[in-house]
Design goal:
This protein is of the alpha/beta class and 238 residues long. The chain contains 10 helices and 7 strands. Helix 4 packs parallel to helix 6.
Length: 238
Amino acid sequence: MAERLVRAGLDWLHVSVDGAIAPTYEAIRDRSSFERVERNVRGLVEVKRRLGASRPRVQLVIVVMRSNLAEVPAVVELAADWGVPDVWVQNLSHTFDDTEPDGAYAEIRSFTTEQGLWCDDGPEVRAVLDEARCKATALGVALRLPPAPGLTPGGAARPRLGEPGCDWPWRSGYVEHDGAVRPCCMVMGADRALMGNVRDGGFAGTWRGEAYEAFRAALMSDHPPEVCTGCSMYRRIF
């Protein structure tokens, strides 16, 4: 499979590694195998080396939260050990503050409240990220950290009026397995931010449809769609 991916010309591959050891990773990624991920990443890197290929650019991604914060520096070490040149550290994507506290998303809303680091710019967080930076520099790993925390969930680094808080709905779409179209991959849940379905007139019709246009217009206003207000991308802390 790795050789097929390389020969197909794949440009870029993100591999989610939300922990530097199996117990952490497997507790976050349900039904996963840390050993299998390591084996497959090492295998892909070896196939690239054998074929003399520069693509795909492989990147490890860790969604940082309270349960795995301490392991961020070790993930940088993993990347170097596995032969991966980049590590991307990001915040949880959404607060789910736009959902009802006791509704269908109550569990994940509670999880993000407990695990999110959006508001925490304390010495522990800074120390761990500083250590990760030092390790990345020493090991030659390109490290991307999220913008500095300190915003309250639901708050935002507000865009200026007339500027969208996010440009995804103008440049890309997210099509699910059943044809449902959403404005981006940050929206979770079948009942949130549905723009249409490609089975009803194709993608072009949905892209130019009333739902999409209304969504874009709201993003340009001082009253963005509710689903966007808790989004880390909209709040510019992703």
